[in-house]
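thought: user wants a sequence for this fold. calling inverse folding tool.
action: design(structure=
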């Protein structure tokens, strides 16, 4: 692929994302981005160099997982790369700001559509911290008011119900039980959550897929992955970014318990009483995030556009 490096003016930087700039290799670092789409516009670009100095890029484009990219070129303050989902990125950085553009491309890296501009900002380095040190406030029952405490994210089949303390999602099916379409995601009306400990019970049928988004930006996966080896996409994983240390899933149809602590850009997750992620650094948002600004409060949301799932006993205790 040819070097497609575009000189651009610096984009606007979001508040709270200031970091020292590496003046000798200014592209290297962890970047958040607002991508040029009406929904799912969150992006994340992590640039590094390998042992031999070769440029590397681990990039999240809207949904799915962050992925290692090909055709990565870094030339001074300019970069280009090809994302495996079929997107060509290119841009420049100036201090802690990034100006770029992105277009669809074919497997050779040739653009197949219009380049659209996006802006990015350098995230500060993650400071040492321990989730065990979090001092927690009074519990907040996120299901106390049933559906009255939540709202739909977008239009579509609303399959959510609340009965007997259980929040349930059912996707749309025909008379023969065949899936017609997914549903909608569900978001808390409160959007003032930052660091906290969250616990909940979840139950999924065989082959089902859902998820709980912390602060609207970090998905803790909900999936029927019983009997499978650990994977960054399986039950209670920090989706696409952190692989559980051990598999602790129960069989589909059984209630499972999840404990999550998000504190000072670190996360600990226990599944069914087993710690599967232990104080791991949080290096970026996950696919489907409401935005990529990791330094402001946000809501909780539950994924409902994939398949059926049940939730109960959803208790949040904010960090003081």
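)
observation: tool returned 320 residues.
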């Amino acid at each position: 692929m040819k070097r497609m490096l575009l000189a651009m003016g610096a984009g606007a930087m979001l508040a709270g994302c200031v970091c020292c700039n590496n003046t000798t290799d200014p592209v290297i670092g962890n970047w958040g981005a607002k991508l040029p789409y009406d929904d799912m516009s969150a992006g994340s670009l992590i640039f590094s160099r390998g042992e031999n100095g070769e440029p590397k890029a681990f990039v999240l484009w809207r949904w799915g997982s962050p992925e290692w990219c090909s055709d990565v070129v870094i030339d001074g303050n300019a970069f280009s790369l090809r994302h495996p989902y079929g997107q060509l990125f290119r841009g420049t950085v100036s201090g802690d700001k990034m100006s770029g553009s992105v277009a669809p491309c074919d497997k050779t890296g040739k653009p197949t559509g219009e380049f659209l501009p996006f802006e990015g900002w350098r995230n500060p380095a993650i400071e040492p911290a321990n989730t065990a040190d979090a001092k927690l406030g009074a519990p907040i029952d996120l299901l106390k008011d049933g559906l009255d405490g939540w709202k739909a994210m977008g239009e579509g089949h609303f399959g959510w119900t609340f009965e007997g303390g259980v929040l349930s999602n059912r996707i749309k099916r025909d008379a023969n039980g065949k899936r017609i379409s997914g549903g909608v995601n569900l978001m808390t009306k409160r959007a003032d959550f930052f660091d906290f400990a969250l616990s909940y019970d979840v139950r999924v049928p065989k082959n089902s897929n859902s998820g709980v988004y912390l602060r609207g930006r970090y998905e803790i996966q909900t999936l029927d992955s019983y009997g499978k080896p650990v994977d960054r996409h399986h039950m209670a994983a920090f989706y696409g970014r952190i692989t559980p240390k051990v598999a602790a899933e129960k069989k589909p149809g059984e209630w499972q318990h999840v404990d999550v602590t998000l504190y000072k850009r670190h996360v600990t997750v226990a599944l069914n009483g087993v710690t599967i992620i232990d104080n791991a650094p949080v290096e970026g948002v996950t696919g489907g995030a409401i935005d990529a600004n990791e330094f402001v409060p946000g809501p909780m949301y539950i994924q409902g556009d994939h398949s059926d799932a049940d939730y109960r006993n959803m208790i949040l205790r904010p960090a003081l």
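thought: summarizing for user.
answer: Here is the designed sequence. The domain at 29-122 is CATH 2.40.128 (Lipocalin).
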